[in-house]
What we know:
The protein is an alpha+beta fold. 26% of the residues lie in helices and 24% in strands. The model has no long low-confidence stretch (mean pLDDT 83).
Amino acid sequence: xxxxxxxxxxxxxxxxxxxxxxxxxxxxxxxxxxxxxxxxxxxxxxxxxxxxxxxxxxxxxxxxxx
Length: 66
C-alpha cells in the first residue's frame, strides 16, 4: 500500500464497479442505467453481466442498500 492510498485525492480519482465491486482508478470505462441510476462499470464483461441480470429480472442486485 502506498502513501497516497488513504488520501481524499486518491479516493476522488477512483470508483467502485457496480457489478464486481472492483476499485478502479480514473474514470469509469463503461456506464449503465438501471433503476434510473447511472452505474459505473469497470469493463464490458460487467456490462454484459448487468444486462443479463436485468434481462432475467434480477435488477434488484443493483438496488442501493442502506
